[in-house]
Amino acid sequence: MDYAYDDQNIFARILRGEIPNDTVFENDHALAFRDIRPQAPVHVLVIPKGAYVSLDHFARDASAAELAGFMAAVAAVCAMEGVEAGFRAICNTREHGHQEVPHFHMHILGGKPTGPMLAV
Ligand code: 5GP
User: pLDDT, tens digit, for every residue of 53-64?
Assistant: First the structure.
């Protein structure tokens, strides 16, 4: 699988500070910020700082420190955002997964019941 990365994608530009974002949490390897079009009371995107296009790319090629840093950011967001009642984590991937931004991101959605898993 060829994971070609487009460094002009919107999240790459956010990471470079070219576009503002509403940061929730940041560490050496990950950034978490609010989705610009929230679909739930809590809608945070967690992204790695490295150039990874998708979950499978990140899972295959990220270092142990990057993997740990990303998961630490997920844990921090969940702890900070008051989602004790539960949440949904979504990683849309490529065409069939309806991915719009080609930089790996995990949506954390919560603050209300999120409904059945899929509407197909
Ligand atoms: P995808 O469909 O790729 O999983 O989701 C991309 C998400 O990025 C969408 O929920 C969209 O609202 C969000 N998004 C797109 N552009 C921006 C932006 O410039 N800033 C922020 N905070 N979110 C964005």
Answer: 999 999 999 999
pLDDT digits (tens, 9 = 90+) for 25-77: 999 999 999 999 999 999 999 999 999 999 999 999 999 999 999 999 999 99
Angstrom CA distances, 45 to 2, 35, 70, 92, 106, stand at: 24, 6, 11, 12, 6
Q: Please name the residue whose Cα sits nearest to atom 12 of ligand 1.
A: 37
Distance 17 CA to ligand 1 centre (A): 16
User: Which one is catalytic: 29, 57, 103, 105?
Assistant: 105
Which residue of 98, 100, 106, 108 sits with most ligand 1 atoms within 8 Å of its CB, as the best mutation to test the pocket?
A: 100
Find tokens 């490295």 and name the residue.
50
The distance of Cα 2 from the centroid of its chain, to the nearest Å, equals 21
Domains of the chain and any CATH numbers? 10-110 (3.30.428.10)
